[in-house]
């Protein structure tokens, strides 16, 4: 009986520690964060010349960014993304390096939702940027550069006060139309369409235990 009582007390202590830890997580929003993520991408078919198109799922996608929160609910982020995609079966052969840089507004609605567990946070992000599409394998003359708009949603899970893992679903919309190529084969590898990204990564606090409020 005494052994069981000790076990109950031990479990209750662990529960109290866990509740206290969760309470801390619910308040923690670092001023500065570094973000790194990898995943896959899908470039829209309307970004290529007629008769060419890429695979539906392409790897890799790599995103690197720095985020600064002015308050617990909002801030800004500057990030760089790199994507590689290649032709699908039935399309002329090509490979493209697609990179972009974006300045984004960041909004964290977690405090207003109320139903998420303390370790989870949601992040909405959007902003303008610039894209660079560079074909490989002797097709460099068909490289493209153009403005874009990016919008996305992140879901973060806090491991501790400084580190969280997250997934990000984002859409990069190209703000220009593809030039006319005649004949079309001369535009092989040219791309200035939109790209859909899904990435998984890690976010690390650069400001230690210094929070926004």
Molecular structure report:
By secondary structure, the chain is mostly beta strands. The protein is 14% helix and 49% strand. It is built from 2 helices and 8 strands, in the order αββββαββββ. It has an 8-stranded antiparallel β-barrel. Strand 5 and strand 6 form a beta hairpin.
Quick summary:
The chain is mostly beta strands and 213 residues long. The chain has helices at 2-27, 110-113, and strands at residues 32-43, 58-69, 74-86, 95-107, 120-135, 144-158, 163-174, 195-205.
Notable characteristics:
213 residues, mainly beta, 2 helices, 14% helix, signal
Indicate the topology.
Layout lengths: L1 H26 L4 E12 L14 E12 L4 E13 L8 E13 L2 H4 L6 E16 L8 E15 L4 E12 L20 E11 L8
Antiparallel strand pairs: 1-2, 1-8, 2-3, 3-4, 4-5, 5-6, 6-7, 7-8
